[in-house]
Amino acid sequence: MPRGNTFYKVASVLVAAVLTVYVYGERNPLRSTLLSVRLMPQLQSSSVLIESVPKSVQVEVRGPKGSLEMVGPDDLQAIINLAGKGPGIHRLRVGIEPAPGATLPPEVTLLPVEPLVTVGLTAIIKRTRPLQAVFIRPAPAGFAYGVPAVDPPAAAVSGPREAVSRVAQIQVIVDGAAIPRKPLEGRFPVRVVDKSGAEVPEVKAKPDMASVKVSLERTAGQKEILVSPNITGAVAPGYKISSIAVDPQSVIVTGAPDTLGELNFVTTQEISVAGLTADESRTVQMLLPDSVSTGGSRQVNVAIKVTPAF
Q: Where would you tag: which of 90, 93, 96, 194 has the fewest CB atoms within 10 A of its CB?
């Protein structure tokens, strides 16, 4: 084949290729668009937590118009690698890649508008605290919750140092109906709270559930009752008792509701007035049931006034 013909054939192929690219470019001109893409920090560490990080980054997507229309924010993800990073502020490079399951047109290019982002990491603090049972429902009238058995008795909390320092109590929230003579038991959620009782969401407790078993106990009631002196005997002939004064006249006693319901007054030791011809004052003990107490002294003063009968 003559060399001149070969040259013209090669030139014609190149011209055809250039024309093809030109025509394609005219029909599908290169364009760009900005997409807000979710930022995915990659952190696998038990010693630090992410304290601050942008939620998303701006990504410039370049390519033919038809290809750009096939790419949306959900098709992309922005990655920052936090491996080996300790507490503090870090400037990290952003990588843009297809989201899992997404396929991008090959002629599309991706470029973050800001190639670096600022990320704040804070140290994770761990503490162990006892679990405290908190009963949502009041005990039935006349009863109180006994000492609960909590299993496990303590929980570990972890989180940012500042948040952990605000933890005042780790509670087991017991929400169940208590019945006399039948223990209340079950598994209940654990909640981390500050001194005001507000939950501290940044702090996690482990375990997040605990077992509680508790019985109801009868509560001691109070009642005010009169003191009735136990007078025995008779004064001397020709005399009479004109008055009896008791100090105190009444006392407040504490005991089981059933016992107090049957107790309307309290008597004293015997006070004999046999043969009395004049006034007399005695200090004697009140006689209370064993299950009842006064919370103070059991002594009372009894003043007996004796006058001639005629």
A: 93
Total number of domains in the chain? 3
The pTM of this model reads 0.51
Write down the residue that tokens 């990073």 correspond to: 85
pLDDT tens digits along 217-273: 877 778 889 999 999 999 999 999 999 999 999 998 888 777 887 888 999 999 999
**Domain limits at 164?**
124-218
